[in-house]
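Example record

The entry below shows one chain as it appears in the dataset: sequence first, then structure tokens.
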Amino acid sequence: MTNTIRELNRLFVSNAPFHQKSDELIEIVCDTLRVIKLDEIKHDDLCLYLLDMSNYKIKLSARTLVIVPNPDICEGDEVKFIVNEVKRIINLGFRSFSGTTQGNQTSIPDNFIDQITFILHFNHDRTFSFLQDDPLYNIVAMGQKEIESFVHSEFPRRMFIKAIKDRLSLTRISAFRYLGPVGDEMFYGRKLEINKILSSDRSFAVVGSRGIGKTSLIQHLYRLIQKEYSLIRGEKWGKPVIFFNCLNITDVSVVAEAIVREISNDTSDILHKTNFSLRDFFKKMYEWHGCRIIIFLDEVDALVPTPSGKKFFSEINAACDQGFLRVILSGYRDLLKDVVNREGSFFNFLETIRLKELEERDAKNLILEPMEELGISFKEKTEVIDHLLIYSGCYPRILQFYCQNLIEHLEKENKSVISMDDVITIEKSKNMVNHLVDIFMSSADKLDQLFVFSALSLPRKFTIEQLHEKIRVDFSEKGLPINLYMVDQGIEQLELSNIIERKGNEINFSYIILPKLLNEYVDVQYRSELLMNDFEVVSKLKEST
């Protein structure tokens, strides 16, 4: 530590060239905070660095952007130039900045707008402090005094986070995220699934309900495998490991073109050449890269049932069978149906992993570690944590929602301690009700929703026979036919959607806050009547009998 302080003091008074001083500053910061520099871009007036800060449980990641401006231009109108350049880089991406790239080439998404960006500068004053008032950007500017404060501290990590908290609100730096996938800094659990996929040569289908963490898992696996492959060839040869999100894509040619372009770096229209074969292409790329190609395709449900999708995946299967290719797919109902259907593209080909709730230990860590990083503690800790785990069912999306809303509530109340009263306040909020009802409505089709509404009046744990009888009575009262096979199919879908859990003959709701909120805040009777008069539901029921 003494040597580091001495080096920093020497650096601040040094007349060394700007680039050299900038590199030395980043080296000291990385050494002090125990983080790794991934990449850099040099320019006359600005030096840009990507740091891997994914071990911090705040809004930092493996692509944290740090900008060091030349101290000679940190005055007057030149500050405006720096500010505009910083915003342009954040908006358009790391490599949009005109300069000479040095260091390692990294395959990193280039949009930093949702992450914290740092400006480290060699001035004593807070030249860039006004940037922190811009609500569109999470920018933290640290001058000489602030850098010295955490480098000289006995607990640099703690002081560094404090410096960030002094500049940005808790809500803005919180890493909790309930919409979309999480980065490595907020990825918890799934060790069994990860080990199973990494220790096998097989191809896999990762299935589960929306928000259960499929995308987070396969993106995490993608990053792990990408690091393993990083020494093979270089970007100019294309990439032997690629990730593509197929959400809302129904034209399979879009996916095929993206795969060809990423693996081969070929931007020509080779897909439409005469006698082009995907299987032959994968064989050529296998030989070209000197390793098997690995493709991650996320959210493939819309592609699976289409005729062009079946042809596309049959070629994928052929390339996998011959050892040129390996695929890891994620999806929901359509993918699972295809895997278990004898006529499906993936029958007896993909090994299935069904994602469910987190293990209790991992769910606890997901709550506690980021909260502690933010300096937030708990009153009646055991009671609060147990309540969150039970009511969320250890469902990651709901836990993240709870925690982010608790942080917003604490900030509004100017508190740093979470109590049981705070949790109850969140559960009664309109946000919580709308969010959980939205999860339920998007995960269950209309008929499955009716089955759930029938189950709401049953005990917390009920049997399949009890549910059969309750549904039969409810539907008979409306003059609607029902058969038990359809009910059992609905139970299977609700289980896949993580709305219910089944152990043998016994059923209960996966996260018990859902029936509580539906009963207290939703007009279930009115919604049931609407659904029972819905043309789609009535037609389905009549067809089934």
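Notes for this example: The chain has 23 helices and 16 strands. Confidence is low (pLDDT under 50) at residues 98-110.
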